[in-house]
Specification:
Layout: H1 2-17, H2 25-39, H3 53-72, H4 84-93, H5 117-127, H6 130-138, H7 147-150, E1 165-168, E2 173-177, E3 186-190, E4 205-209, E5 212-215
Antiparallel strand pairs: 1-2, 2-3, 3-4, 4-5
């Protein structure tokens, strides 16, 4: 989770910085590699993340800093262990903004906030992902310090087509939506295995329509903070 991604990425960046300056740098990077190999399958093969979008953007936002540095030295194998295009779909197709909570996402736990543009711009940049570019420009939360670093204007935004979007995610969530704006309809159902930050309410339903959250998770509904 983010509790592992943060120190792992920090140690990895430190090891890369100290390559050729400290004889221990290679050993530190090996520790990071072994940790990453134990960690990356927390992301499902379709890119979905069991803790929900709020914790996914926290974890991924830290992790991409290390992966970006590794790619700058032409070590691409690390990043490709995660389905980043699918991860971007998880962010976009669980979007559930309402009039009172514009950053809301489908949430079966306590992680229902949105994603930041730095993660989406990074995915768009490195995987030439038009859908990620579209999501970053139109449906992401706040820009962050690395958003302009990762932004590549040559990636053409590609909005999803069709009046309906249906996604069955490997974490056991099924989401149907007519779009990603406040007035759109969202219906979500959940099953799946246990996960950190989730609630044990299998077969529950979330419903949003016309800017209002009508059926929500009882313990942490995606309402605005006040």
């Amino acid at each position: 989770t983010n509790l592992r991604a943060v120190p792992m990425s920090a140690l990895g960046l430190g090891a890369l910085l100290l390559e050729g300056r400290d004889p221990r740098a290679a050993e530190w990077l090996d520790v990071v590699r072994r940790s990453f190999e134990d960690f990356h399958d927390l992301y499902e093969k379709d890119g979905s993340y069991p803790e929900g979008t709020g914790y996914a953007t926290y974890t991924s936002g830290e992790l991409i800093l290390l992966l970006h540095a590794l790619r700058r030295r032409h070590d691409d194998g690390w990043a490709d262990a995660i389905n980043w295009r699918g991860h971007m779909d998880f962010f976009l197709f669980t979007r559930m903004p309402s009039d009172r909570h514009p950053e809301g996402h489908v949430n079966f736990g306590d992680g229902g906030n949105g994603f930041h543009s730095d993660v989406a711009f990074w995915i768009a940049r490195h995987y030439r992902g038009g859908r990620a570019q579209y999501a970053a420009a139109n449906h992401a939360g706040p820009h962050r310090i690395f958003s302009p670093v990762f932004f590549d204007p040559d990636v053409v935004p590609e909005p999803p087509t069709g009046p309906w979007h249906a996604r069955r995610f490997a974490i056991g969530w099924f989401v149907v939506t007519t779009g990603f704006r406040s007035r759109d309809l969202v219906v979500a159902l959940r099953s799946g295995s246990p996960a950190n930050h989730e609630h044990a309410d299998r077969n529950s339903v979330i419903l949003k329509a016309f800017g209002e959250n009508l059926l929500v998770d009882a313990w942490h509904p995606p309402y605005e903070r006040r």
